[in-house]
Amino acid sequence: MSNVITAETPAWKDYEKIGFRVIFIYFLLQALPFDWKFYSYLFSTPIFNLHYEDIFNLANFTTRFGAGPATYADWGILLIIAVAGAIVWTYTDRQRTRTYDEAFYWLRVILRYRLALALLAYGFLKLYALQAPYPSLSSLNTPYGDFNRWKLFSLSLGIVPSYELFLGGVEIGLALLLLFRKTASIGAFMFLIFCGNIFMSNLAYEGGDQVYSLLLITYAFVILSFDLQRIIRLLILQQPTAAATFKPVFEGIRKNGRWILKTAFLLFFVVIYGVKTGVGAKHDPYQYPATKGLPAISGLYNVATFIVNGDTLAYSLTDSLRWRNVVFEEWNTISIRTNKPALVDSNNLHLVKRDNAERLYEIEGTSGRHYYSYAADTTQHLLTLQNRHPALSAETLSLHYSRPDTNRVILTGTTYSRDSIYVVLEKVNKKYLLEEVANGGGRNRKLKL
Q1: Distance CA 393, CA 361 (A)
Q2: Nearest residue to 123 (alpha-carbon basis) of 202, 196, 216, 56
Q3: What's the CA gap between 105 and 99, in Å, rounded?
Q4: Which residue from 16, 18, 57, 23 is spatially nearest to 40, judged by alpha carbons?
Q5: pLDDT per residue over 307-350, tens digit each?
Q6: C-alpha to C-alpha distance for 369 and 423, rounded to whole angstroms
Q7: Radius of gyration of the chain from Cα atoms?
């Protein structure tokens, strides 16, 4: 690549050079995958059988020094490395009189594509209403006060998939603007408004993505900084403003290579990832387990009879042992409502997992129900239940089941504490206001519940 810099290009001051060196090293360390854990994940991924979950996780990997998610402490470590690198760079480059316009250009290219990649990764999840799915039956039968703020936010977004689709479309549109130099600043400016709201919602609702969303905001500031001074002079100060004087010129094979790489990026992260995400939304939505439950059993069940070690326990709102109601999901999850609070999974991170055991969205952020996954032996009519909370995975139940009719389920067996139980469940033909309104054409229709 050759570049043209006109005589009007101002010389960089010494402090500007030093500041740029720090910024350049810092953001390269943030944006490029120098972390060995990225390559460990990459090499363990079936490249020729990629799922949309794999592409998402690779696209959103960030440099971190601990075993968990990235933190602000990781930023501090990277900043120390960047300052040290800038000191060495300043010493070895102390005789340089030229500017860093070309290096700044390539830094913006890297950040443009990195930010676009993040937007595409999240955008398609929202476009297909995967990130915040429609509430499960268990969630619809959990009191409002038993959810934490993050789960309430996610459930509120999940009940309006059309708005979630709109948000995904905005993110994809902004990503496309960032991929082209002439529209990159427009895309970065719009993104700051859009993602500023996301960052604040993460703070307000105690979401787990506040560090990552703020990182993307810093990328956008660097991208926009190239035109920011001219924008302020022209639109706010209303002063004469010169156009950017640096313009990259691509010639020969580099010109063709540029378009080949851009086309490959669009093909893989827009077309292929978009198709895989759409297929996954239909056949394997990642927030809920993919394993199907028993046929024709999903629904809400009241506990009509509950016998423990031969003693019948009457219905009670205060008894911590007796079950109050049970939900069978369409997948292999049973949730049980009791007076005993459930251990809350406050992860609040947005994780995309292929393994069903790691798909914990339904239990995250709620203390209202006890969740169990189950394996069904339909020959012996045996259900083996395991608590879905990672800290309680040793809690198991073995229950024989029978179905005298379509509205009743009888469970007999032993609990984790070795108590024998006999439970009769009666299905509730419950109507849900959300679904009734959606099927009835609006809120003005009279409802009979």
Answers
A1: 16
A2: 56
A3: 12
A4: 57
A5: 999 999 998 888 888 999 999 999 999 999 998 888 888 887 88
A6: 17
A7: 28
